[in-house]
């Protein structure tokens, strides 16, 4: 069963690489996600990331810290804020300040397969010099993830896993800037628990954006995302 899952995962990865490489919107995202357990139920953490669109000089850097409360093993509440800065030396610079509130439910777990649901709200303030789109807009997000049981590969002691997720992101007010950035995300990936504290993941993501001319999800963006997680303090 594990070999079948691995074969399916590799096949999907190859297919999505082909899709992404055929798009002039292909991007690479890198994320480092540290965390620290304040107590048995409280944790601080977040993301520091950098994103680049290969066919242009467009880049984004961000920081997104948060505070989490775990009242039980299956429920997590997280609040935090983020700052995103994007730029292209030949075209534009922009900034976004964001606050967010999420509820995460890790359930069910069936024969080692783990499901995770995340639902929440974001409040976003945009600033794009010289444009009328400098405004506030709220957004709702829903994320569903499926992670496979752990398995060993190539004789390595550190276990691997396969994962897939789907996420819906929608502006609540449906103003101009919100409608243009509504999108769906489809992701597959493989991860490795390098140690008890350190985990690495390679993800391939397809993003469907709204085309403003026909108001349908047709503009695809391919993303190769590299994510690294590290737990400080007690584990």
> How much is the average pLDDT?
85
For the record, the count of structural domains works out to 1
What string gives the helices and strands in order? HEEEEEEEEEHEEE
Query: What percentage of residues falls in helices of 4 or more residues?
Result: 10-25%
Number of helices: 2
Strand order of the largest sheet: 1-2-3-4-5-7-8-9-10-11-12
The major beta sheet can be summarized as: 11 strands, mixed, barrel
Low-confidence stretches: none
For the secondary structure, the number of strands is: 12
Structural class of the helices, strands and pairings? Answer: mainly beta
Strand content: over 45%
Instruction: Output the radius of gyration.
Output: 19 Å
N-to-C CA distance:
30 Å
Molecular shape: globular
Give an overview of the whole structure.
By secondary structure, this protein is mostly beta strands. It has one domain (2-180, 218-232). The protein is 11% helix and 62% strand. It contains two helices and twelve strands; from the N terminus they run αβββββββββαβββ. The chain has helices at 2-21, 176-181; strands at 27-37, 42-53, 59-69, 75-88, 92-105, 109-110, 113-127, 136-147, 160-171, 183-193, 198-211, 216-232. An eleven-stranded mixed β-barrel has the order 1-2-3-4-5-7-8-9-10-11-12. β4 and β5 (92-105) form a beta hairpin. The chain is globular. The two termini are 30 Å apart. The mean pLDDT is 85.
């Amino acid at each position: 069963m594990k070999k079948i899952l691995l074969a399916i995962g590799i096949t999907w990865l190859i297919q999505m690489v082909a899709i992404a490489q055929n798009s002039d919107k292909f991007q690479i995202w890198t994320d480092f996600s540290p965390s620290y357990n304040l107590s048995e139920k409280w944790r601080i953490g977040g993301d520091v990331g950098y994103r680049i669109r290969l066919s242009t000089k467009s880049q984004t850097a961000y920081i997104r810290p948060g505070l989490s409360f775990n009242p039980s093993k299956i429920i997590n509440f997280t609040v935090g804020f983020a700052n995103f800065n994007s730029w292209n030396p030949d075209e534009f610079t922009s900034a976004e300040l964001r606050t967010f509130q999420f509820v995460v439910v890790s359930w069910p777990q069936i024969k080692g397969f783990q499901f995770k649901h995340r639902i929440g709200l974001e409040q976003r303030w945009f600033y794009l010099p010289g444009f009328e789109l400098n405004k506030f807009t709220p957004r709702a997000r829903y994320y569903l993830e499926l992670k496979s049981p752990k398995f060993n590969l190539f004789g390595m002691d550190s276990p691997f896993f396969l994962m897939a997720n789907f996420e819906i992101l929608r502006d609540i007010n449906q103003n101009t800037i919100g409608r243009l950035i509504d999108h769906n995300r489809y992701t597959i990936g493989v991860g490795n628990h390098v140690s008890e504290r350190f985990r690495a993941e390679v993800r391939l993501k397809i993003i469907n954006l709204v085309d403003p001319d026909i108001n349908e999800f047709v503009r695809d963006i391919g993303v190769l995302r590299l994510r690294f997680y590290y737990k400080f303090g007690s584990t």
